Amino acid sequence: MSRLPRTTANDRKSYTQMTQWSGYLGLILQGALVTIELTLMGSVLALIMAFLAGMGRVSRFFVVRAIATAYIEFFRGTSIFVQLFWAYFVLPFAGLSLTPLQAGVLALGLNVGAYAAEVVRGAILSVGREQYEACTALNLGRWQGMRHVILPQALLVMLPTFGNNAIELLKATSVVSLISLADLTFQAQVVRSQTGSTLMPFLSVLIIYFALALIISWGVRTLERRMARGLDGVRI
Amino acid sequence: MPAPIIKVDAISKSFGTFKVLDGLSMQVMPGEKLALIGPSGSGKTTILRILMTLEKIDGGHIQVDGEQLYHMERNGQLLPADERHLARMRQKIGMVFQLFNLFPHKCVMDNVTLAPMLTKGVARAAAEKRAMELLDMVGLADKAKAMPAQLSGGQKQRVAIARALALSPKIMLFDEVTSALDPELVEEVLNVMRKLAAETDMTMLLVTHEMGFAHDFADRVLFFDRGRIVEEGKPDEIFRHPKQERTQSFLKKIIAAGHRV
Ligand SMILES: Nc1ncnc2c1ncn2[C@@H]1O[C@H](COP(=O)(O)OP(=O)(O)OP(=O)(O)O)[C@@H](O)[C@H]1O
Ligand SMILES: [Mg+2]
């Protein structure tokens, strides 16, 4: 007589644990999506600010230079925590209420944009004087020369550091957990408090942050290779 | 007799306390081919850069094609030129640099078409057609799609010449355009210049250490020393029978250094 396999109490426990784990993993992945969203939107804002302020820094108008410098110094000189709290808790008093996501994007974009602005400025200044002179000799206007000659060459110099800035921004996104935005770090803490397990949530977020950073590095390197093509004599 | 196309009147230029040009005056007739020679540091590059508006003057006046270069006439008064005036004056002048200054991120064709399209609103098709003619003229029609980094020095310099010509300037400035080239590449660039001199009525100012070429190319030679024109005349006069002691000793040194005259 054959005996039916009987599920033991132990088996049942590990089964429910498994469905629970996959549920918790789902939470963490949701958090990862929020983190990715913040990183992308923050990077776009940071990029815009970087070019505005970086080019403002080399403007021939004093007022423009002063505004750009003030922005850069202010956002580099105060912490991103404080900037986020201002964006989320203080701006409403000025009649501007932001969702946690908007506040996060604003703080991240402005903060990282200030660092990246210095990268833009440095890259513009790194383009040789002879390129500016060729622009003048060909009668290109200042903006035309900037747009068609200087910036395309400067962009190549900026890219590697922009990659670092984007990774910094990715890592900084975790501050939004402080205003209860359910990003990767926030969800990891939720899972930890619900399961009592520390290793599983923190190991997963470690891996996910690292993977995201790798993707950014890889993307920037690919872009760099593509843009450098032809400059070194390699056939395009 | 036609009016001079360039009239430099007592200009001075200092870098810090160092006076590079000291009350320099000169005139250039339309279509004239002028060679500027002289020892290193005598201000030859500086005068070309001043004509290209790459360098400001401290004093004096320059007239180009009947108009003040660094000044605007407003109600009978001379005011410092603004950016718009300078841009208009730059249309009359083109310059070729010692180190080519090509745009490394653009292919040969785009190097040549960029300025006509941006500054004169020439349509791409027309700009490319004209660029092909010019590239053909400098012998590089097959390199239109190449990037500057793929070209030899001589080829780069010929592209730079085509690029400057694309704007059809009345005056072309050449600053030691062969001195950064390997000896075997010099001739291909000089040939293009000969062709230009023979086939166009452009006014050409040429700074050079190639005395043999200056002799054949120029209608008139100016000998510079310490920011002044010490001697000027027909190539034969300057090279065969220099009057000034400084010109003589300069030419002696140049010949001793192995240059053909
Ligand atoms: N931007 C600058 N700042 C300071 N000094 C300068 C600058 N440009 C030129 N000079 C100086 O001015 C003097 C004249 O320079 P310029 O380049 O006109 O000489 P040149 O006749 O072209 O000499 P070369 O035959 O060596 O090219 C030189 O002593 C040079 O060092
Ligand atoms: Mg010189």
Class computed from helices, strands and strand pairing of chain A: mainly alpha
How is the main sheet of chain B built? 6 strands, mixed
Helix content of chain A: over 70%
The average pLDDT of chain A is 89
Oligomer: heterodimer
- Shape verdict of chain B: globular
Summarize this, please?
With about 240 residues, chain A is mainly alpha-helical. Chain A is built from eight helices and no strands.
Structure description:
The complex is a heterodimer of chains A (236) and B (261). Chain A is mainly alpha-helical. Chain A is built from 8 helices and no strands. Chain A has a single domain (36-226), classed as MetI-like (MetI-like fold, Orthogonal Bundle). Chain A has helices spanning 9-57, 62-77, 80-90, 100-126, 129-137, 142-172, 184-195, 199-228. Chain A is flat, with a radius of gyration of 24 Å. The mean pLDDT of chain A is 89. In chain B, a hairpin with a 2-residue loop joins β6 (71-74) and β7 (77-80). Chain B is globular. The chains are: A mainly alpha (236), B alpha/beta (261). The structure holds adenosine-5'-triphosphate and magnesium ion. Adenosine-5'-triphosphate binds next to α1 of chain B.
